[in-house]
Amino acid sequence: MSESKPKPVRPKLQRSERVFSESHLTSWELFVRDSLLTLAWPELLNSVSGSTASDLISRRGVFSRRYYGSVEQLQQPEVDGHEHCRRFRIENGDSPGEKDEMFGSPSTPVLENPEYQTRWYFKYFLGKLHQNYIGVDNDKSPFFLSIVMNEDNNSLVPLYRAILFRKCGAHKISLPIPQNKVLTVKQILSNFPNMDKVEKGPKEIFTPDIQKDLLLLEEQEGSVNFKFGVIYMKQGQNSDDEMLSNEHGSNKFEQFLTLLGDRVRLKGWDKYRGGLDTKGDMTGKYSVYTVYEGHEIMFHVSTLLPYSRDNRQQVERKRHIGNDIVNIVFIDMEEDDQNETAHAQFNPTCIKSQFTHIFAAVSVSSNGHYRLSVFSDEAVPLFGPGLPCPPMFSDPYAFREFLLVKLINGEKATFETPTFARKRQRTLEMLIKDLHSEHVTDARITMLNRRAFSDVLAETPRHSRLKEDSRQIEFVRIGQALKLEAIVRGDAPTSLASTGAAGTVFKRSPWEANCFYPVFPSHPIACGDSWGENRLVVATEDGTFVVEDGTSHRQIFDKSLQVRQLNVVEPHGIILLRAGSAHKDCKIYVFRLSQIEMTTEIFTRIDVKEHRMERTRGAHLYSISRAGGARLRMCVAIGRKLLMFQWKHSAAWTAWCPASDTDTVEGFSFFWELNLSEQPSILTILDNVWSPISPTHGDILVCVGYKNHWDVVNGRSGQAQHLYTVEGTRTHLVAALDLYEDQEIQLMLCYNHTCHFQKLNETINCEAMNFDFHWNSAPTDIVCAFPYIIAFTSNTMEIRLVVNGNLIHTMSMPKLQLITSKNDIFFATTAPEFFPNKTDRLYVDIRQQGLQKVSPPSSPNASPEVKPLRIYRIPIHALSRAPHPDHSRTCSPPVWKSADSKLAVPDQPRVSRSASSSPVPPVRARLQPAAIK
C-alpha cells in the first residue's frame, strides 16, 4: 500500500476564545534449521545487522522500552583472528517500566500465536467440505485461497472464513454473511490487503489432494515441537569450551532439570526426539523431556550429551547445543550475594554460536528462589512475557511456566528475524510456484466467472449431481485422514494434544471476565459508561438505566430521550449525553451525578431542556479528552463543523474544592470553531502536547477521521496536517487511539482488518507499514490495555499484544457489544443458557450418503427471539497487573443478590467466572414478561 499525495484540509478558524492551562506530560522449523546450518557465520552476522527489530522498538516506543530491556553492544571473543560484536536486548527486570508503580509488570505468561488460534486450515477447513482456489495477483505472483462457510462454535453465527496463501505467509480473515446475499470469490478476495484489484478471477481446484498441499503450506509457519539447549556453567567460567567441559552438574542443577521435565531413556524413545539418537545411544543415554500445553519439548542438556576427555571443544555437545535457537544457561553460584552479580557478568557472546539467538540465564539461591535474565539478539522482535521486577520467582512451578512460555515465544519470534524470514519466504515462494505449476495444468480445474462461492450444489443433471456428491464425500474423507495423520505424528495444534495440558486447563487467563449483571433486558444497548467501582450507565431504545453490580437496574431517562452517546466524568461529578430522536436533532446535555443518584424519578425529554448545551443542535459525534489531563475538553462535530469546549475548572481545583464544582451546562466555556472539508466520523483529542512555539501553553490537537483518511487539526492555528490515507475501494475507519510517550504522540489507526502505528510529523513509507498488524475479524471497537489490545466484533473478542501484534486468544460470543473501557472493560453478550442448541442448526443431507455439512439459514440476519443479555467485566488490573490509580479494585463477588423482584432468579446462585458459561440456572434465569416494559 503506497501513500497517495496528501490533500490537506485547511479549516478556517472562525472564532477563538482560548482558555489555556498547564500541560500535563504523561514443519518449517526443521527446514530453516537444517538450511541455516550451511550458512557461513559472517553472512548471517551481516544479515542480522540490517534488522528492523530496533525500528519496531522505536515505533512501539513507550511500551517496548519500558518493559523489554535495553539493546547493548557486547564484545565477542576473537573468531579466526577477528573480533566481532553482537548487539543484544537485555531483560533483567531493571527497565524503567518494571519499576514504574503506575504500570507494574506485565508478567502474565501467555503463549503468543498459539497453534490452535493460528493454524486455521487444520482447525476449520481440514476434514470439512470447503473450496480452494488458485490465482495470480497483480504482481504476477501465484496464490492459493481457501474458503469455508460454517458457524461459530459458540454463537452459531454463520460466517465465511478465508485463508490467502502467498509467498509472504498466510493471511486469515473471517467475514459475516450479508443478509440475503452470497459473496462471490472476488468479493471475498477484495477484503485482503492489496487484493481488491486482481484482474482475473481465481480458478477452483476440485481435486481432494489439494488439501495435503495446503496443509504443507500452513505448516511452514512454524513447528509445534521445540528443542532447547541447557548449559551448565560454574562460577568463574567465561567460555563455551569451559562450560561444555563440565562432565557433571551440581545438586542445584539436577533439581533444576527435574523442574524442567522428566528424565527419559533415549533408546527406544518413540515421541519427539529433538534430533537426538534413539537407536544406539550415540547422543547419550538420557535426556530431559516435557510437554507444555501440547508442545513437546526436548532439552539438549550439556551434562547428558556425550563427553570426550580428549576433545577440549566438546564438538558432540556443541553440535546440538550450538545449533539450538534458544539456550538456557544455568549459572551455579556458591554465594547468594553473588547471584545478581553473576547475571550482570554473564556475556552471551562467550558462546561462539551465531545460530543461537536467545540466552536465558538462570540461577537459584540457597532458599530456592530462581532468578532469570534474558538476552535476545537485536534482530529478534519483541516477545513476552515481560520479566517481573525483581526477576525473582519464589514458586518453582510458576517459574517453570514463565520460563517455558518465554522460551517458546522467543523461538517463534526468532523465526521473524530477517535471515529466517527470508528463508521462509523463499521456501514458500518455491512451494507455491511448484504447486501452481502442478495444478494449473489439471484438467479438473474450471474457471469461475459468474458462479458464486457457495454454488457448489448448483442445479445439474442427475448423473452430474451424483458425481459431485461422490467427489465431496471423497474430499472430506481424505481431509479427515490427513487430520488424523497429523495428530498421530504430533503436528496437530496444541489444544488437540492429549498430554501435558491437564495441569493448565483450569488456569485463569488475564482476560477472563467476571459476571457483572446476570440478566439485563435485551434491548439493544446504544452506549454506556462505568460509574465508580460498581455501577454502569447503559442507554437502550427503551430508556437509560443505572445498573448496580449484581444488584438491580433502575431507569433514569425514559425512551422519549434517545441517548446515543454518553460519558460519566467522575472527577467533575457530571454525566454528558448526546441525545435526540434523530441525528439531526441530537444535542449535548450535562447532568450532575448527584442529581441522578439522589432522585428516584425518571426524566423525560421535557425535563431536560435546562440541561441542554447551546450551539450543539445537530451534533452527530463528540469526544472528550482523556482522563488524568489538566482540563476536561469536549470536541463536538456538527456536520462539517467542529466546536471545542472546555470545563472552566481544572481537575486539580475540583479535587481541592469538590463542593464548589456544581455547574452543569454553564461549566463549559466555548473555545473555538472550525470548518472542515467533509463530515468527520472519528474524533480523538490529543491535548497533552507541549509546543516550543508557545512555551506557556499546549496546543490542542484533534485527530479527525473522515471517509478514508485521518488528519490532525490544530485548533490554535486553524491548520490541518494530513496523517494517513487508506487506499482501496473498501474502507471502514474504526478508531484512532492515542498512545503517549513523554511529549511525543503516536496514534494507533485502526481500519478494516488493520492496525497501523503512526507518529505525528512522520513520513509514511513502506518500512513504517511493515509494523502494521491485521485482525482476523474486522473490529467494531478497539480497546488498548497494555500489554494487550482487544478487538470487539458483533460475535468475537480477539486479543493481541500491542508490542508485536501477536495473536493471544479469540473468544466467540453472540450479540457481543463493548459498553465501556474507561476503567475496567465492560461488555454485553447473550446469556449462555440462551445460546441456540445443536438442534437449531440447519443440515443439508448429501444424497443419502450419510455425509452432512453445515449450511447457513437462508436469512442469517433475521431477528431471533429476544433473549436477555448478560453484562461482564474484565478487571483492567488483571490485564495490566497495574493498581488502579483511584482505589483498590476487587473482582466481582462470587454471589449476587437480586433486589428487583422482576428478575426471576435465585437469591444467591453461583456466579461463573467465565463469559462462556452461565452463572444462573437456565430455566429460572429467564425474564418474566413484567420485566420488559
TrEMBL record:
This is Rap-GAP domain-containing protein. InterPro entries: CNH_dom (IPR001180), Rap/Ran-GAP_sf (IPR035974), Rap/Ran_GAP_dom (IPR000331), Rap1_Ran_GAP (IPR050989). Residues 522-826 form the CNH domain. PANTHER family: GTPASE-ACTIVATING RAP_RAN-GAP DOMAIN-LIKE PROTEIN 3, RAP GTPASE-ACTIVATING PROTEIN. It comes from Dendroctonus ponderosae. Pfam families: CNH (PF00780), Rap_GAP (PF02145). Keywords: GTPase activation. Residues 881-933 are annotated as: Disordered. Residues 909-926 have a biased composition (Low complexity). One of its GO terms (biological process) is regulation of small GTPase mediated signal transduction. SUPFAM superfamilies: Rap/Ran-GAP. Residues 214-435 form the Rap-GAP domain. One of its GO terms (molecular function) is GTPase activator activity.
